[in-house]
Design a protein that fits this description.
With 108 residues, the chain is mainly β. It contains no helices and eleven strands. Strands 1-2-9-6-5 form a five-stranded antiparallel β-sheet, with no helix packed on it. Strand 1 and strand 2 form a beta hairpin.
Length: 108
């Protein structure tokens, strides 16, 4: 498992990837060519992946995000050290918090 701030990145076996992911549209890259896992609402900084791969958003308000890195990659953020990731599939989980009456993603 890997953690960078409020983003948790969990390796998963390719056999555990749902069948619908193969044909699912992938999330677009940002203007800098990165796969953005989480964008900071306050600072505009981003937890993002550099390198070839694809990011697919699952159903539901909180994802999950599924990340495929055929050659590995690096997770970068302006305020954190980069994290190298080996090739494979990952589930990306955003930290959540409870507020009276609901659950929401943690604001960065």
């Amino acid at each position: 498992m890997y953690r960078q701030g409020d983003v948790l990145i969990v390796p998963i076996d390719a056999a555990a990837v749902p069948a619908h992911v193969a044909g699912a549209p992938q999330e677009p890259r940002d203007g800098r060519g990165r796969l953005v896992l989480a964008l900071g609402e306050v600072t505009g900084h981003a937890h993002a992946v550099l390198g070839p791969g694809r990011l697919v958003r699952g159903t539901g308000p909180f994802g999950p995000l599924l990340l495929h890195l055929p050659d590995g990659g690096r997770v970068v953020h302006e305020e954190h050290a980069a994290i190298p990731l080996p090739k494979g599939w990952y589930r990306v989980v955003r930290q959540r918090e409870y507020v009276p009456g609901s659950v929401r993603l943690v604001a960065d």
